[in-house]
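Person: I keep going back and forth on a fold encoding question. Show me how you would write down a chain together with its backbone fold. Please set it down just below, with no commentary around it:
Helper:
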Amino acid sequence: MGLELKTLQAFLDHSFDQVIDVRSPAEFAEDHVPEAINLPVLDDAERAKVGTIYKQQSPFKARKLGAALVFRNAAAHIEEALSVHEGGWRPLVYCWRGGQRSGSFTWMLREIGWPAEAVQGGYRSYRRLVTHYLYEAALPFKLVQLGGYTGTAKTEVLLRAQKLGAQVLDLEDLAQHRGSLLGARAGGQPSQKMFETRLVQALAHLSPDKPVLVEAESSKIGVLNLPPALWGAMKTAPWIELSAAVQARSRYLSQAYSDVLADSVALKERLQPLRFHRGHDLVDRWEALIQAGEKQALCQSLATDHYDPAYDKCMRAFAPQVLSKIELAELNEHEMDVAAERVAQVLSEIEM
């Protein structure tokens, strides 16, 4: 039957020496239990081949081929990746649904003498718990959003407040995206499922007895959706709002987005969808600024003609309770430190 893990905390706080995901590399890359390593007993091509034989020829032939491949690959893992472990090593093994792949590998490990366990229900049991937590239940945290126009150094202030002891949920780091039209990062974003795994892992380290600071975002960060439990809590959360003059914001943006602004071809491509929202004339003007190398002027126009109107529309729609407004005149290091201190102070005064 395998070991039944009934809660997310049980998956995160297990006492095993290693969690082993024996699914194929593609399955593992999409999402996996936190801290798991991938020792596939069927690679992507082998899994596809076995599946095709199962559907088109016979389940028996598929199981026979699958067994030969599983034990062959498992033996290679024992000779290589697992060869360093002594007899007391305790691994926890899972596959897709707690079936033959994890069962066979766990049996082999036990025959050697390792006290291995397989997860009952496999990855699917873990995923059901994640889905319930983020889609069906209410988060047990009081969120406070850090808002402000684009270019007010919200992420910088958020991280500085964290260093001062504030509880922080850094969504842009979890999503590997800076949360705007030009916010893509090198390496791309994780899958939706992996993002949600990162999210529950981060939330597991937070205390419900203190407020949690989160940067104001839309319901999507890049291509990733904020799950309903989180988005619902954010929509009703009070705000701390940062503000700065557009000239200071444009200088800050031209520095913070220097990597994006350096690639004029890719930058122009990213702006093309805005032709349908902001008009051809405005996008043509942006392209002319890109061509002329006028990075700060471009950032100022993007702020005033695109980002700011979207922010104003959002504020009218949600009308959040604003706990404090913090002005940053020049957006320099000292001002960001002072702003972080003020944010941390406001959070400490919130009654729980």
